[in-house]
Each structure stands twice: as C-alpha cells, then as structure tokens.
Design brief:
alpha/beta; four-stranded mixed sheet; globular; binds ligand EPZ
C-alpha cells in the first residue's frame, strides 16, 4: 500500500505545489478550536520507535505532511506502518535497513533524527545530511560531535553521513556546546541502548523533549533528569511494546491565540496544557489581550488597543522562535514601535518582505527587526516561504479588507492540520484553491 502511495507521490506533490489559500478579510474570529498533536514531539518519537524490534502504537499524531514524510522514511527503513482510526501502528519485526535517502530527508530536516536510533540498534547508519532550509544553514555538527563521544565514527561524503559504532555505543559524559533541540533528542535516543550510563548536560528542555523522554520510559528506557538541563540515561537491552499519545502542539496553540489577538476575536483553544504555553500567555496579556485559563482550555479575547513590546526569541522556556513571525504580525498593529530579536536562527525574517508588501513597515538589521505600529494590512497576492512565515501571512490576511491569496501553501501543510477548516469554523472566510 505504501509503495502505491509512494508511486502516486510525485503527482500528488505536483498538485500540492500549485495549491493556494484565498483569504477574505477582515473579520473577527469567534468560537472554539481543537488543538492537534505536536508535530515536533511526534517526529522524534517516530524516530525513536526504530529502537523497537516489534510493535509501537502512537495516538494523536497530527495529520500534517512532515508526519507523512517521517512515516514514509520509516517505511523505507523496513518498518511496517498501519493506520487504524486514530492509531498509527509501527511494526518493526522486519525493520533492518539503515539507509535514509536524500529524497525523503531533503524536505524534512528532522529526518536526521533517525541517525541516533539506527546507530543504537545496528551500530551503523547512512543518513542524508539534511542540508539547509529557508530559515538557515541548519548544521548538524553538535549532533555528530556528541555521537562521536559515544564511540561513533563518521564521515560525510556526497551529502550523506556515513556513521558506524564498531564496538557499539558506549555511555559517556557529554556537554553540548550549544543548546540544540535536535541534538538533545538524537543523543537521548542513541544513549538509550548504549552500554553503560550517559550524562548529557546543557540540554534543550523543550516540552517536546520531555514528551520524547516519557515515551522512551514507557518503552522500557531508563532515563531521568538530574538537573534543569542535565539528563542521565542508563542503557538498556530490551525495548517493550507500548502505546503512547503525543502531547498537544504548543506552536499551533500559540498561533491561534495570536490569530484571536490580531483580529480582536474571542476564541477558546482546547486540548492544551496551559502551563506549557505560560510564556506566550504572559506575552499576550502584556500586549493587552484578556486571557482566562481553565483545565485543558485557554480563552482569549483580543483587545482593540494592542500595546507594543520588545521580544527576544530563546530556547524554552523563553519566547519560542516558532512564534516569532506570528507575533510580528500582531506587533504591526500595536500602538507604538516594537523590536524583535531572533536569537535562534540566522535567517528567520523571510516573512518581512511579504508583510511589507501588505503595508507593514518592518526594517531588519541582522537578527533584529524594527516593527512600526498602527499598520492596517492591505490584501495582496503572497508567497509562502517557510512553515511559520506562511502562517503569519494568513494572520495578516485575516485582518486585511478584501481578498488575499497565499501561494505555495505546501509549506503550511507541513505543520498545520486542516488550517482552513479550523479557521473557517471560527468565522474566517478562507478557502483552498488549486
Ligand atoms: C527544532 O529544530 C524544531 N524542529 C524547530 O521547529 C525549532 O524552531 C527549533 O528546534 C528551535 O526551537 C523540530 O523539532 C522538528 P536546534 P532543530 O537544533 O532541532 C544551531 C518548526 O517550525 N545548530 O535547536 O533543528 C541551529 O542552526 C521548526 O516546527 C547548530 O549550530 O533546532 C540553530 O541556529 C523550525 N548545530 C540553533 O542551533 C547543530 O548541530 C537551534 O537549532 C544543531 C543546531
């Protein structure tokens, strides 16, 4: 089935590339939005499922393109993937390949996350190096340096990482030179089957990493946090069958909160854990939104008066870089100028040019963006570039009178499940056209 799906892959992608979204603004969003499972928790958990030699069942995986790509990658490695209702069952009893090809990794950088599990399980792997994307070079030097401290030998040629662990992975003390989500995930997964104990320090502590650790413990790994950014992993030899439901997507949640704030809307987002998005909630309160929290729900009412603030992106629990573009749209409508500093990626202002075409007055200098306030966006024909920049164009279009068109929405489909359905349900006039 996957093979047939794979052969239709090219014409399916062809039609996806031509798709666009038409947005008729401006209107206020009102109602409830159910938040889907987290793309950035699902990807490392799917990679970690390779540790198993039998069956892993996952629930709440979001229906987004990156998850489809990761499932195709697992399929190409010999995993048998079956979807039954809201469950995805991965059977690895015949999973024996260790080659992750360029054509699957090139569209989704997280493909590099299969390197750790394949090395842990087979002692060898050939994985396409992910290459860059529109937000930056996206190197993997931190992953590779740390893996070499577990005994991995590697060389990079013709765009592939050729890695082996001749004596298997050996536990070690490793300190990351820089906080990296992907490197932390790759190493936690690899160390889970290493001989002996590994201590990782200066780890990223994003909620998605905590979710990965909960999943690994559920399948029998011995892992515990020994300080805020240090974690201890005692290698095991047996992985258990288990079923696991991934956490909510905190970036999707934050995006819809901003959508409510920027359209002076009145929205409740459901299926969330409010304390995990406390930074985003506090920021939106400072800007003037009224926010109430109850159990697994956050209710927000946008305010006509939006106060300007300065924002700096930082590793969790700082302000997430994945919400920077969305906040920039909101701050264009603030009462005064704001400054946004992008401290995680070197080129994450791709949305600025498109927003300026809609009437924004944003100037950038290196990783700093100066955002003039009191802007009314004008409807326009737009081009999406990366996942989060694309959604910022939708947010601006929701507030602009008239019809905007966002092209290349395959970027959006990588990380937002049913975005036009969810927005339509709360009153947006939006439709997908080929
Ligand atoms: C993860 O990317 C997320 N992706 C990104 O979300 C997110 O923006 C990012 O973390 C930061 O929070 C997934 O989880 C699948 P990093 P990752 O390693 O792991 C540099 C989205 O929109 N670096 O924490 O690639 C790197 O260049 C995506 O959903 C090295 O220099 O991020 C960047 O400047 C976009 N060497 C910084 O560290 C390395 O070996 C942080 O990168 C690795 C990273």
């Amino acid at each position: 089935r996957w093979k047939i799906y794979g052969s239709n892959w090219c014409n399916l992608t062809q039609s996806l590339i031509m798709q666009k979204l038409e947005v008729f603004g401006a209107n206020k969003l009102k109602g409830k939005i159910n938040i889907s499972g987290s793309k950035n928790a699902s990807l490392p958990i799917l990679a970690a499922s390779l540790l198993s030699k039998s069956k892993i069942t996952l629930k709440n995986l979001p229906k987004v393109k990156d998850i489809e790509t990761m499932l195709l990658l697992l399929d190409s490695l010999g995993s048998k993937v079956k979807k039954i209702k809201d469950k995805t069952i991965i059977n690895n009893s015949n999973q024996n390949k260790t080659f992750a090809s360029y054509n699957l990794v090139k569209t989704m950088r997280a493909g590099i996350l299969v390197l750790g599990p394949l090395l842990a399980k087979f002692g060898k792997a050939r994985v396409s190096s992910p290459g860059g994307c529109s937000i930056g070079v996206r190197p993997i030097d931190i992953h590779l340096k740390a893996l070499s401290q577990l005994g991995v030998k590697y060389k990079i040629n013709q765009g592939y990482v050729h890695a082996t662990a001749p004596n298997g992975l050996i536990g070690s003390k490793i300190r990351f030179s820089k906080i990296s989500v992907g490197a932390t995930e790759n190493l936690i997964i690899a160390a889970s089957l290493a001989k002996g104990t590994t201590i990782l320090s200066n780890c990223a502590i994003e909620p998605e990493i905590k979710d990965l650790v909960s999943f690994l413990i559920k399948i029998g790994c011995k892992i515990n946090w020994i300080s805020k950014r240090s974690i201890k992993i005692v290698g095991v030899s047996k992985i258990k069958d288990a079923s696991y439901s991934v956490m909510f997507d905190r970036i999707e949640a934050g995006t819809y909160l901003v959508a409510a704030a920027v359209t002076e809307g009145n929205i409740s987002i459901k299926n969330v854990i409010p304390r995990i998005i406390q930074t985003e909630i506090n920021t939106l309160k400072k800007i003037g939104a009224k926010i109430k929290v109850k159990n697994d729900e956050v209710h927000i009412v946008g305010n006509k008066k939006i106060k300007s603030i300065n924002i700096k992106t930082a590793p969790y629990p700082g302000f997430p870089t994945d919400l920077q573009a969305q906040m920039m749209v909101l701050l264009c409508k603030a009462n005064k100028q704001s400054v946004i500093k992008e401290d995680i990626f070197e080129n994450r202002f791709m949305h600025v040019a498109e927003l300026n075409r809609m009437g924004a007055k944003i100037s950038t200098d290196g990783n700093k963006a100066k955002v003039i306030g009191n802007i009314n966006f004008e409807a326009a024909e737009l081009m999406a570039t990366d996942l989060r920049a694309s959604v910022s164009l939708i947010l601006a279009a929701l507030t602009a009178k008239g019809k905007s068109v966002v092209n290349r929405i395959y970027h959006l489909d990588r990380g937002y499940e049913n975005i036009e359905k969810k927005l339509k349900k709360v009153g947006a006039k939006i439709r997908r056209v080929n």
